[in-house]
Write a structure and sequence with these properties.
By secondary structure, the chain is an alpha+beta fold. It is built from 6 helices and 15 strands.
């Protein structure tokens, strides 16, 4: 499921300022039509929910080469990192943030569309312009994900040099180069190999990692599954070792339907 460029004009705010205001506790608002969600509610879905998790790392830039300590750490802020390509002058403590999202999950796609609506003042547009917008996002909302699971990974850092390096790395990777580096783990199916990789297309969602939805004829996740679902990337700039982000399948119910 490729994310089309025309959907994401100005949407990079998703991975920045908007997420910072996501503090409202999850409530019954998710049962309402997504067209009623406000900016804070959308940000909550995108930053910390059953379908979106963020892991952050802090470290100290030390020059031309560096090392990594505990990159997979148990908490969201665990892991000491040193710059691998030299720190940027004036950046004493580099900070790195990675957000993995199940973009094949209906609530994440609806939240993304709602964010685009808010940014384009959809609610105040005349009817004909709303209809034109609806046509553009129709394919995204109703995408056929019956055969695939799409995990997107966005990333950012306060170190411009590191950001440049990460952009270059993610933009030049291919499915073949990541076959042995990117996995999805589920409680019953175990390790699921990467089916397809799509470099960042813009819009703040980052790179797309596509996995098969079934393993040996069975869904890789089913209602009632417990344990952890883990997205793992064993190498990327700055972290340099295994990085994993965990999800709880028992929480992946949206409007009465299991969604991932």
């Amino acid at each position: 499921m490729r994310i089309r460029r025309f959907l994401v004009a100005g949407a990079v705010i998703i991975s920045g300022t908007v997420i910072l205001c996501a503090s409202k506790k999850r409530s019954d608002w998710m049962d309402e039509p997504f067209s009623k969600w406000d900016q804070k509610q959308v940000a909550e879905l995108f930053s910390k929910s059953a379908w979106a998790q963020t892991k952050s790392f802090r470290g100290q830039a030390t020059g031309q080469h560096g090392t990594v300590a505990d990159p997979g750490g148990g908490s969201a802020t665990n892991g000491a990192v040193t710059g691998t390509s030299g720190g940027t002058l004036g950046v004493d403590v580099p900070e790195f943030s990675f957000t993995a999202r199940f973009f094949s999950a209906q609530p994440i796609r609806e939240a993304y569309v709602r964010m685009l609506e808010i940014m384009n003042h959809y609610d105040t547009l005349p009817a004909d312009k709303q209809q034109a917008f609806d046509q553009k996002v129709k394919g995204l909302l109703h995408a056929d994900v019956s055969q695939e699971v799409v995990v997107t990974l966005s990333y950012n850092t306060n170190d411009p040099n590191s950001q440049r390096d990460m952009n270059q790395w993610f933009n030049t990777q291919t499915t073949d180069t990541l076959k042995q580096n990117a996995y999805l783990y589920t409680p019953k199916a175990g390790q699921i190999e990467l089916l397809k990789y799509i470099p960042p297309q813009g819009g703040g969602l980052g790179a797309q990692f596509v996995f098969p939805r079934t393993f040996k004829g069975e869904p890789i996740l089913q209602p009632g599954d417990t344990g952890r679902v883990r997205f793992q990337l064993s190498y990327q700039p700055q972290i340099q070792q295994m990085m994993y982000i965990d999800f709880k399948p028992e929480d992946m119910t949206y409007k009465g339907q299991f969604s991932y």
